[in-house]
Structure formats: C-alpha cells, structure tokens
Amino acid sequence: MRCKETVFFFTALALFFCLDACVNANSEDIVAKGPSVDEENPVEVFDSTHTKTFDSMIEVYHPELLFFIGTDKSSARASEKPQMGAKLNYKFYMDVHEFTCGDYKKLDKEFDRLKPNCANDSLPLTDVTYFDAILIANAKSKSLGLDTVYTYTNASFDEENHCTDIEGLVTHLEIEGFRLPTEAEWILSAQLGWDHENSWNNSNSDYKVHAVCSKGFDGTGFCDFSGNVTEWTNDWLGILKDTTITNFTGSTDGGEIGERIIKGGNYNSDKANSNLYSRGDVYSVTSSTMAKYVGFRLALGVIPKPAWFTSNGHISESKIEPIASAATLKSYTGSYNMKLAFRNDVTNNLAFIDYNNGNLKVSEIHDTLNVYHPEISPNGKFVAFSTKPEGIQGESKLYVRELSENFSTPIELQVKSAAIPRWRILENGDTAIVYVTDAGNNSEESSWLAQSTWQVTFANDKFGTPQKLFDGTFHGGIAQDNSLSVTGAKRLRVRYGQKNDIWYSQEQACNVSLAQDGSKRTAFLDFGGKTGQEFVGSHYATHERILIADSTGKLIQSIAAPNGYTFDHTEWVSSTSNLVATLTNINGSHKKIVLVSTVDTSFIDLAEGEELWHPCLWVQPKKIIPKPKSSSSSFAQSSSSSAHAESSSSSTPTLNSSSSTSPQSSSSSEIAQSSSSSEIAQSSSSEKQVPSSSSEQINSSSSSLLAESSSSEVTSSSSVEDSSSSTASSSSESSSSGVPYQINFELDTDSAGVYYKAGQAQVFAEARYKMELLWQYKDKADVVIIGSSRAQHGVAPMELSEEFFGVNLAFIGNTLSGSEFLYDNYIIPHMSKVKYIVSSIDIDRGFNTFSGSFFNGRAKICPGYVYDKDHNYWKDGYPEGLAELTYDSPGISSYANKYRQTRGLDSIPGASVWEEMPQVDSDSNLYRRSPGSYRTNFNSLKKMVETAHEKGIYFIGVVFPQNPNYKKTGAFGRYGIPRSEAPILLQEIADLSKTYPNFILFDENKMGDHDYTGDMAYDRDHLAYPGAIHFTARLDSLLKELPALK
Fold first, then answer.
1. I need a labelling partner for 582 at 20 to 30 A (CA). Which of 22, 254, 542, 819 fits?
2. pTM of model > 0.85
C-alpha cells in the first residue's frame, strides 16, 4: 500500500532521527537574529517557538509569517517579478546543509549509480540533474521505510549514469517522504537567518566548492543557503502575481522547455548578486541541466492543499499530470505529432497536451463556456465542442476555437441547438462538422426521430450553411463512404445504407464510436448485458469492458479494464486502430486517460488528475515521401566538389556512440494516408520569412510549411502509398562531383531528423532548429554563421544585402571544438554554396573543449545525431526526405517561429545598460593553469581555417563586443583570461592570415574600446537586437569588399 499507517511513519521518522542522533540541545528554540539584508524582502523579527533542530534537519513551522517570493526591482528578470506574498500553514523539515557526497555513500548499494568526483565526503554532491536529485530523494525514503514522493514509468540515463529524462513523473505532495523543497519552503527557511556576507562566493572561494557549513551556521541553524552551491527546488518555473498565496508550490508546468527553479548563491557568483528572489541561472534551467556549482538539499513533510499557478495565472488546487511521452506513443500511433484534448470536469474547461511542442505539459483554456466532447480538426489546429454531453436532453451550443494556449475567441455555430461535433473531410476536399440537434436518450424511437443529424462546412474561421443529413441523431460517427452511421445512449442505433436498425440485441449501450481507419468497426460500452457476457464467456460489471463490433454489428473483440477501474468516454484515435478512454475508480472518479491498443489490448497512461472527461487523441496522418520518379533526382545531391564529401581530418571528433534503438512504428495498415500533399513554400534570397501557416487549408495533413532548400523540389506526395518510412533511391552511378549514390535507402522515421525530445534542455531545442536550417538551406546559403550564443544573438542573416544568403547555425554553449564537429561533418560535406564562414572567437571561453561540448556529450541521447553518425553523416549522399522529416520532428513552437523567420538569429528586443563593474564568472588564471584546453580550441580554429582555404571559402573569426567596463576588472571578458595576455592571444589568431589569406580576424571588442553602447546590449557579453543590426551592417560591408578567392 502506498499510504502506510500514520503510526508507522512516525516510528520510522523517530528511528531516523535516533540513528542520525546528536540533537543540539542549545538550538531547540531559536530566535531569528534580525531582518534580512535583502531590503526589498524584509523579514519580521519573531519568536520561533515552533522551530526544532535535529542532526541533519530542522523543523520549520511559521503558519502566520508572511514572506515574499520574487521582487519589484526594475532590474530583475521578468520571471522574478512582481513580488508575491506567501504563507505556509504546515510543518516541514529542511536539511541543515546541502546533500553531501558522504550522504550519497550512505544510500543502499543498489543505488550506487553515480560516481561523484568528490575530494572528501563533506563536499556537496553537485553536477546532478533535477532527475538525479529526486531519485536520490526516493532512495533515501526507501532506506528509512518511507513511501516515495516521486513515481514514474520510465527513466533514461546518459553514459555517466546521470538521469536525463523521466517519463510519467508524478509528485505526490500528500506523501510523507523525502523530496526537494518547494521554492516557498526554501525561501522561508533561508530568510530566517539569511547572511550572504558570510558565504562562499567568487571573492573568497578560489572558484571551487567547499565543505558544507565550513562558513558556519546562520542564526537558525542552517548553513550555505547564500553560497557554496546553488540548489534545486521542486518547482516548475512560472509566473508570479501581486497577491498572497498559501502553500504555494510553483507552476503547473515549466512552459515550453520545462524550466525549473534553482535558488541561492554559489562559489562562482558575486556576493552582491546573492539574494532570495533569484530563480534561475545565466541560461534556462531544465530538469536535465547539470552544473558543477548546482547541488540540492532535501525536505520532508506533507503539503496540505497545495496551490499552483497555471500558465494563465489562475490558481489551481488540483494538478493534471501528463504521463506517456511522444516517443512512447509513437510506437503505437506512428507519429510524434499528436494532440490530446479533454474536459477538466473540476473546472469545466478545455485542457490539452501537444506532444510535438516542447516540454510535455497540460494546457488549460480558461473560459466561461462549459466544454463537452472536444473534437480536434483534421489538421490538428482547431477544436470543436458542445455545451451538453451525451445522454443529457436539451439545447446545446457548438463552438470552434484554435487549439492553442493563446487566447482565441470561440466561433459559435448560429443554430438553435447543436451537440457532439465530429469533423470529417468531404469528397470535394471541404472540411465539415457533423452534429446532432439533441444528445439525449435515444431509447424512444419517435422522440429520437424527431431530432436530426446535420453537417456544416468550416473554412477561414467561418461556418457554412448547415445541411440536414437525416432524421435521428447519429453522433457516434459516419463512415468515410457514408455507408454506415452509428450512435448510442441508450441504444446502439445504426443507419446502414438508407435503413435504420438497432444492434446489440437492443440492450443498453453508450459511448458509441465509429473507427475512421476504414475498418468500420464500432466501439462501445455496455452495462454487463447478456449479449456481451455470452460473447466474453464470463460475468463483468457495467463499463468493465470495451466491446467492438464489425461493420455488420457482429461482436469481434472485447477489452477488459485494468483491475480496480472501469471505462468511460471511449473514442477511436484518429486514423489509427487505437482507442482512447477514461478510467473510473471505485468511487466513480475519472482519474486517468489511457490509450488502448486493439492489437495487444495493452494500456498506456496518458494523463492523471481528479476528473478527466471526454478525451480526443489526434494523430497527424503519416506523410509519405515517394520514391523519386527518375534516378537523377532521387538523391538531393550536393553540387560541391568531391572534397566536400571527405572528412577534413582523421582527427575530427565524432559521436562515440552505438546505434540508436528506437521503438518500432506501427504497421502501415494502421496509418491513414495523407489527404493532401504538404505545401512547399518557395523561398528566394530576398524573402524575409517563411509564409505563415495560416494560409494552409484546414484539411492539410502537413503540420507546417517547409521552405524549399534546393533547386530540386522537396515534396510530399498526395498519392496513397503504404509505407512507414521515407525512401531514398537512385542509380548506382556516381555524380560528376564524385559523390557516390546510395541505393534503395530507407530512412528510419523514429530517428531521422529527430534532434530534440520533449523536456530536454534549451541547447537541444536551439540545435534542433539549427539542424533544420542546415538541411533546409544546404544548397542555398552562401554565408554560414557558427559559434556560441554571442554569434547566435549577434548576427542577423536577414539583414545582409540581397546578394548574400545567410543562415545562423550558432547556439548556446557551443565551442570552437564543437563548431569544428558541425563544420567537418555537416557544413563542408553538405552546404554546397558556402563562400563565407563567420565564426565567433571566444578566447575567454577557451577552456571549453570538445570533451565537454554538446556534440560529444548530450547529443548522444538524441536519435537524430546518433542516426547521422551511424550513416557517416550522409557524406556518401544526402537522403531524400531528411529535411522534411527534420522539419516535422518534435520541437517547440516559439523556437520554430523565432528561428524560421530570422534564419537562426535569436533576436532579443530588450536592451540594458553596461554594468559599471561587470562580474567575472570564471577564474581569470584558469588559462595559465590549464593552457592545454585553450590550445585545443586554437588548433580546432586553425584546422577549420585550413579546410576553408582548400575549398576557396573565406573564414571570418569574430570577437564580439563585451561590456567595456571589463577594462576595470583585470579580465578580458566575462569568463576571464588575464587582460595582460589577451592581446598576445588575439595577435596569434590574427596571424593565421599570414599563412591562410582567406582568414580575417574581425575584432569588434577591441579590448573594450568599441562603440557598442549599453542600449545595444542584452547583458555583459551578448548583443540585443539593436546591437545585432549594428554588427551585421559592418559584416555586410566587409563581405562586399572581399575579392573572390581563387
């Protein structure tokens, strides 16, 4: 049993404290020493008579104390504003210090998964993901006989056994077990004796971690909240509001990329920047983020009536958890592109999960409309619903709205009554909605025939003129060829041809749904009727089984509900052989939504909550990329010289990883064919952005428009073809460039182009869209920008003159060694038109080598990169369809909009001012102590320049401007390098032009003596949009002046 006896828990807890022993008798009752040094978040002086301390944890209980989350400082980040009041009316325990390497060693040997690099046991355990931390919390709970707070269905680990993803994660705040503290708990505990003056920070730490509590304890008995290492909390990052919340537990989700909250200062941070309100790091923090300066401490205690903020700022006391990932579902549905819509019966609102858009989360559209029977449109962009459910008589309204978190006005069908909408595609290609005039009981034939079934087209956000189809209410579905219509509640009535009939021996049936995969199967629920029991061969309870009949009404299958549950709200999943249903527990609560396989009768949990009704799962129809008609066009081949297909150096770093293993997609018979070809937008060099997807017809199976990437068309066929893979096929003859063809190669759609998975860190999302741009413009771009976030924010390809076609492939955290990997394996072999390479030269980041780069580490857990590596990065020839598969692969809509419209620029509109004394985030002497790392990056640069020289390509190395006030610090820039040595290093780089005349050092920093003003900057080392425009104009002038290379 998950919920153990209360007596057992307190016995275990008492045993824990006895085992850890050594109660500090002098600190049983502690008085806070005074107000916080954070002047905007003052702390009341109070008598903490309820505070107790144990050897490793302190009891915290201050139910009347008002404290604050966030700040009203104008300089703070948007996510840290406004200041919000908070109270916690419950008791919890908080660790005195961060979880240590010694604490980790005390866990059960079976959990000896990580190999922490700890000099001694008293150091905090760092460089762990959020997932690592919660698994450790679970392990500690188990070691003391407590229930675990975190449950899940599957966990993924990298080569170093760090947990990088957890599927089906549910946090049970009602369980008394070890967990990460909420942000509110962390702030309340930390502020009681906050003292950032006495902390390990960059002024005294020597940029390394120290033993816990080696700076002593604060006035409450805690230590290291304000320094040493930053700490994970349990919460998703979300908005704050100018209000007061009791028992605040963060956001219901972490937004599109799943951002988490970390708290406190660390040995790397400036003492002046250590505060209670900060909630993040330099870059976005997700559950898979790791840093050597980030650890955690644990909390223990039940949180009664937790309160979350939704993305729209509404307070929610119940949370819906998404369970299965897109990757898990794809093995059943054949697609990553899926959406689940349903009714949250607690709020009466429409809720949905977009499986192809970033972090897996539940979005809820807050409205005054009562939503029943949501039905997603054929293209996945709209949802129709009614205001009355099946079995309830009376007038109902029908609405259509965009299926998006962005508010859209519902469009009402102007008829007297319309209920239970069903989308369909008509023979002429129009999109229509079938509805009935009343969804009430159909037992009495005359009253049922008095109502009717109608159809109305929907296009361009408007309804057409409704047309009556027939008498009687057939809201269970109409076959594509119009030969069969079904309905239920309370009789399974059918219209076969022109005749009405009743199936299932006229026994009670409901939740009737007609499959749209062409099989004409009807699924329904019954009340344990005689006919069903005779078919099954045993007794069963009401709604305990899904019954399936063939096109003649003959029962052909029965699927039993899981133990302890019954079914409700069964529906076929669009275009597949799967079903979706809710599961009802013994108390009648609809706790789960599940996918039901009719092939093996297995169940996949989709969502968990209090009351989840009327699910609809939409799956994008399989897009078929046909075999090319002629051998000459079957391979979108690079027109570059044969040298382009060769590896530039035998020492080029490659992904050292085994072949990916992905779940098999469902059979082609389960995949409905595309109703129309995908639209391909022709993109010329003068275009500023890819056309908006609003131009799509509503019945298009394509999720988005793909800009043409080469002179040969990249299209999707409208013809019907049973295939679950993209095929690249061609003649065995070699091309004039010497690049050999591959014959009859089939792309694995589980891996090809899949460069991002939901919930991964920001860098995955950015790199995913840079790979899309690379494949999309491989035969068009002549200016290619590579490098770090400085280049990503600083170069605007669309602002180059029309004679140039630029694409920005830079992304956060990238290094010169990482750029070399991209350059050697993708850019040189495939980007056939490139004439200019523009690369950031970040000498202050020279300690970051390939061993720590994205391509050597994290990329190995993405199927797309591993698949590319296993096929030699397609250097033997580009496989037809890879660009389209990449375009349609999982991603994040906001990133797609940003990078597709700007060709890779991460445009930051807001600008700041240069700080008077900018912080140096790394030890400036690191270069002196470890010059080898810098030399490795320099050699990577040199090899890229040499290769470019051989190909007749200009290589422009850019030193981007940083805060000019670094002149006052003794450091070259944000990440160090002594200023006295920087000119020598820069000169060495500039001297490459003596050997390679194609190389140009474009120094826009000029040791701080530049003309980039504070309003051109985003922060101390990144340009905002005005700065990017300023820089790109100068780059454009330089490019125009360069003579053609021989």
1. 254
2. no
